[in-house]
Structures are given as C-alpha cells and as structure tokens.
Amino acid sequence: MRGGGWAVQQSEKSASLWEKLQELDVRYVYLLVWIVVSIPILKPLGLPLGSISEETMLLYDFIDHLPPRSIVVMIADQGPAAATECQPGMVAIFRHCVEKDLRVLFFASRTEAVPFIEQCMIDVLGASKDHPDYGKLYVNLGFIPQYEIGLSALAANIFYTTTDTYGNSLKSMEFFKDLPTGTAKDWSLAIYFGNSNVDWVVRQVNDPYGCAVAGGVGAVLVSRIYPYYPQQVIGFLTGLRGSAEYEVLVGKPGSAVAGMDAQSLAHLAIIVMIIIGNIGYFVSKRRIGGF
Amino acid sequence: MFDVNILIVLAAAAMTLGLYSYLYRENIFFRIAEHAYVGAAAGYSALISIESAWRLLHPHLDKGEYYWLITILIGLMYIFFFTKKYFWLYRYPTAIVIGSGIGVYIARGIKTQLIRRITDTISNVSLSILTPFDGAIRAIGVISALLYFYATMEHKGPMQHISKLGRYFLMAAFGSSFGVTIMSRVSLFIGRLRFLYFTYPAQYVVVLAVIMLVAAIIYDHVRKAET
C-alpha cells in the first residue's frame, strides 16, 4: 500500500512540475532565448555549417556559368526587418557577379530597401556612383514604385525610367549601349531579395520574357517559393543560412556565417522548449483524463 | 569634433531596446520607440516616393510633355480620403491603381500560377534519383489536401481517409511555415544583437537598459509584495 501511495505522490509531484512548466511566465522564455543567442555571438563556437543546400548551389552554378557582361537584375525588397537575412546574400551574390564581370542592374521595390542597395555597392566595390565601373557594369535605378506594375513597365522597356537614382541619363550609359531588345529578354537573371512575395517577379519576367528568376529570401518566404522551384525559380538562398552558404561559396565569410552559431543554438533551445511544452501538455491532459 | 554617427548609433540602440522592452511589459520607452518608428518610416517613405515620382516625371516635363502632370493631379486626389464631402474623388486613384494592378496580374497570373502550378505538380520528375518519389508525394499531397476542402460529398469511406491524409499534409505545411517563421525572427534578433554588441557606443546603451530592466523587476516585485 505504501508503495502505491508513494507512486501516486510521485506522479502528482511530476505532474505538477509539468503543469508549472506549462504555466511558466513567457518572459523567462524570452530571457532564455536572449542568453542562448548572446553566448555564441559574443564567443563564437565555430559550429560546422554542413553541406551547401541544392537551392544555393544551383543559383551559384547558374551565375558562375553566365558569360561576361550578362545582365543580372537585383530587386531589393528588404526592409530593416529582412535585411539581416537578405543583405549578406545580396552582398555575396553581387561580389560573385563582380568577379564574373557581369552587368548588375539594381532597383528597389520598397522605399526602405533604397539604402541597402547603396550599402551593398559600398561593401563590395568600396564606392557606389563614384566607382569607375558605375554606368558601365553597375547601375542603380533606385526606387521603382508599385511593385508588379513597376516591374512590368521596366521589363517591357528598360528606359521606362529615364534616369538612375542619382539623376544620370540611362541612354548615356555604356551599360545600356548594346541591348538587343531593351526588354527583360536581355536579362539573364532577376534575383529578388526580401521576404514579402516572389510571385510577381515570376509572373512578370519569367513567363513572358523567359528570364531566369532566383531569390535571396527571408526564411519566412521559403514555403512560398518552393512551388516555383526548380522550373520557374532556378535557385534561392534560404534566409540567413542561405546567405551564409553563399558567403562560403564566394570565399568571403561575413555577417551571415558569423550569425549561424547563434541561429543553430537558438533553434536547439526552441526545439527543446517545444518538446517540453508538448510533454507537459500530454502529461497534464492524461492526468485530467483527456486520453 | 563631435561625430554625428555616434548620436545615430545611440538613437538606433535606444530605439531597438525600447521596442524590445515591450517583452517585459508595456512602458513609456516602448511607446516612444513605436511612435518614432512609425513616424520616421512614414516620413521616409513619403520622401522617397515623392523623389521617385519626380525622377520619373521630370524628363517628360523637360520635353514639354505637360500632359504628364495629370498623373500628379490623380495622385493628389488621395487627399480627399480625409474629407467627407469629396470622399468620392479618392475612389478614382484607388480604382486606377487596383484596376491596373489586377490587369497586370491577370494577364500573367493564370498561366504562371494556375496552369504552371498544375503541370509542374505532376511533371516534376527528372532532377535527381529521389525526384520521382518526391513528385509522387507532392501529387498525393496536393490532391488529398484539395479533397480535404471538397464539401459537396460527405467524407465517408475512402474519402474520409483521403481527407484525413490531406489534413496531415496541411499540418506538415503549417508546421514548416511555423519553423521558417521562427528561423526568420531569430535571424532578425541576431542582427539586432550583433548591432548592439559590436557597434560603438551601442554597448553602453545595452548596459544602461539591463540596469533599468533589473530596476523595473525589483520595483515590480516590491509593489507586488506591498499589495
């Protein structure tokens, strides 16, 4: 009898522990995540990145095999919230394009993305409009409003906007001298950076003009980009991890690689918390006779 | 010589921590940061939009094509949103934007997003050894998930099992979306922490914020004990 009583007591004790955990103030969870993320940022652990994902590799190979002076259009749609994930990827891809002697046309589809283009050029070239190749290999069109309508107009006629963001006439630039059609048919690749939507890019340049589309997207967008992969979207960078992979591929590890330790540990902590939460749920449910 | 960048970094750090302070509880610093963010974002967007509109417009005006000014007038009609009497005028620019948006979308959307989605779902078979299997799972997932929403027939017999399978596929998709959303938010947090820890002099604001947080926790405990 004593044994049975002891078992019941222990069961009640453990059940109350799980219940307590379930009712834990959520602020302790925030505190835990802050600590878990802070430790590897302050003292990097050097966790391995693992193999490069197929989506990243296909994009890298595509750019790597483009002939010199091919046109790559970079559509910046990252606000400050998405910049941590997308900006390192944008910088790494632009660095790759510069190494391969490709022409890169930037434009922002969101007002907040405008400074990120400037920053990307400065990070890779050390300058933006003052760089000797600006206007020859690289052009920044600045903000083009109305997302899909703006892209549709630009894809139909590259001179839809007559000047770049600094007010220079596009027709006077070497970049635009030998364009066969002046439409998106001349573009080899359009890459979307951001975490809102890639559908409109696929709709306006892939299907009508046959231009390949890729993405450097926030992880939150990945589940929406997969249906297009690999037929309509030839490859993409998945959030911070994708950016880190591309940084490794171009041999210039940067902020994305530095953030991966923290990312991995934070995920581990969240997984542990989800498991504990679920155990607590099932234990307390069984205790009140739910199962 | 005072460096204005230091002031910018201090403000950015204070705003970041002010917004995160909401995680402890609602407070005046969060309110200030929230209002400042909304105001700054709206102001910045307005400025860039006006600059961009002018950049698109002025080459036409330079050529004497003044009829392009009509676009400005149409844009200004948005202001009538704030009047009761002339509210109807606000509907014109809205109708133009929505109409042109739908027109541009419809023209391409049906082929790109409906027909291609269906054909690619079935024919995605030749990328790697695993792909035929992958393609089959995708096809079964799409069909069963669609049948889950099929309401014309009662879900009994085989239909019950198919719709249940569809529900599992939907749950897997939601789980995947949840996972990548967490990944995204953690990345954002990592970005802000890297800024706070490694950008001089943001570190001092972090120390100050931690001291204020501890003080707030102690204050709350004392008040709770008193009541």
Helix percent band of chain B: over 70%
Number of helices of chain A: 10
Number of helices of chain B: 7
Mean pLDDT of chain A: 90
Q: Most extensive chain contact?
A: A-B, 60 and 46 residues
Q: What key phrases describe this protein's structure?
A:
heterodimer, A: 291 residues, alpha/beta, Rossmann fold, 2 domains, 6-stranded parallel beta sheet, 10 helices, 6 strands, 52% helix, elongated, B: 227 residues, mainly alpha, 3 domains
Secondary structure topology:
The complex is a heterodimer of chains A (291) and B (227).
Chain A: H1 2-22, H2 26-42, H3 54-64, E1 71-77, H4 80-99, E2 103-108, H5 114-125, E3 138-143, H6 147-156, E4 187-194, H7 199-209, E5 212-217, H8 222-225, E6 233-238, H9 239-249, H10 255-287
Helix pairs in contact in A: 1-10, 2-10, 3-9, 4-5, 4-9, 6-7, 9-10
Chain B: H1 4-20, H2 28-62, H3 69-76, H4 87-123, H5 131-148, H6 158-198, H7 202-226
Plain-language structure description:
By secondary structure, chain A is of the alpha/beta class. Chain A is built from 10 helices and 6 strands; from the N terminus they run H-H-H-E-H-E-H-E-H-E-H-E-H-E-H-H. In chain A, strands 3-2-1-4-5-6 form a 6-stranded parallel β-sheet, sandwiched between helices. In chain A, strand 5, helix 8 and strand 6 form a beta-alpha-beta unit. The longest helix of chain A has about 35 residues. The two termini of chain A are about 25 Å apart. Helix content of chain B is about 80%, strand content about 0%. In chain B, helix 1 crosses helix 2, helix 1 runs parallel beside helix 7 and helix 6 packs across helix 7. The radius of gyration of chain B is 28 Å and the shape is extended. The chains are: A alpha/beta (about 290), B mainly alpha (about 230). Chains A and B meet through helix 2, helix 4, helix 6, helix 7 and helix 9 of A and helix 2, helix 4 and helix 6 of B.
